């Protein structure tokens, strides 16, 4: 697979980039060099390698959820700028 000048122009257009002819040519060469380097991965013997989603084993560092008492509504409403019917009143978003 190789990148053409037309491919670079298309991506630049999608990204709303204005590139000079020299920049288009430079990016075409650079992207093709990157793809050529990535093709080296095809030389690796991966027959006995088990597929993984991460290189290292993931460990959950989150604590367990613990159910506990909520604050009393009176205490919560002390911090509210405005309240109505035991609920925090906020400005209307939609009219």
UniProtKB/TrEMBL annotation:
Which domain of life does the protein's organism represent? Bacteria
Enzyme Commission numbers on file: 6.3.5.-
- How is this protein named in the record? Aspartyl/glutamyl-tRNA(Asn/Gln) amidotransferase subunit C
Q: What class of enzyme is it?
A: ligase
Q: Which reaction does it catalyse?
A: L-aspartyl-tRNA(Asn) + L-glutamine + ATP + H2O = L-asparaginyl-tRNA(Asn) + L-glutamate + ADP + phosphate + 2 H(+); L-glutamyl-tRNA(Gln) + L-glutamine + ATP + H2O = L-glutaminyl-tRNA(Gln) + L-glutamate + ADP + phosphate + H(+)
Protein family (similarity comment): Belongs to the GatC family.
Question: In which organism is this protein found?
Answer: Paenibacillus septentrionalis
User: What does it do?
Assistant: Allows the formation of correctly charged Asn-tRNA(Asn) or Gln-tRNA(Gln) through the transamidation of misacylated Asp-tRNA(Asn) or Glu-tRNA(Gln) in organisms which lack either or both of asparaginyl-tRNA or glutaminyl-tRNA synthetases. The reaction takes place in the presence of glutamine and ATP through an activated phospho-Asp-tRNA(Asn) or phospho-Glu-tRNA(Gln).
Subunit and interaction comment: Heterotrimer of A, B and C subunits.
Q: Which UniProt keywords apply?
A: ATP-binding, Ligase, Nucleotide-binding, Protein biosynthesis
Which InterPro entries does this chain map to? Asp/Glu-ADT_sf_sub_c, GatC
Taken from the record, one Pfam family name reads GatC
């Amino acid at each position: 697979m190789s990148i053409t000048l037309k491919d670079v122009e298309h991506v630049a257009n999608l990204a709303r980039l204005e590139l000079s002819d020299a920049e288009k040519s430079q990016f075409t060469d650079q992207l093709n060099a990157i793809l050529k380097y990535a093709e080296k991965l095809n030389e690796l013997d991966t027959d006995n390698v088990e597929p993984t989603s991460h290189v290292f084993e993931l460990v959950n560092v989150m604590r367990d959820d613990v159910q506990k008492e909520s604050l009393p509504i009176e205490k919560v409403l002390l911090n509210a700028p405005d309240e109505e019917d035991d609920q925090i009143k906020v400005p209307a978003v939609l009219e």
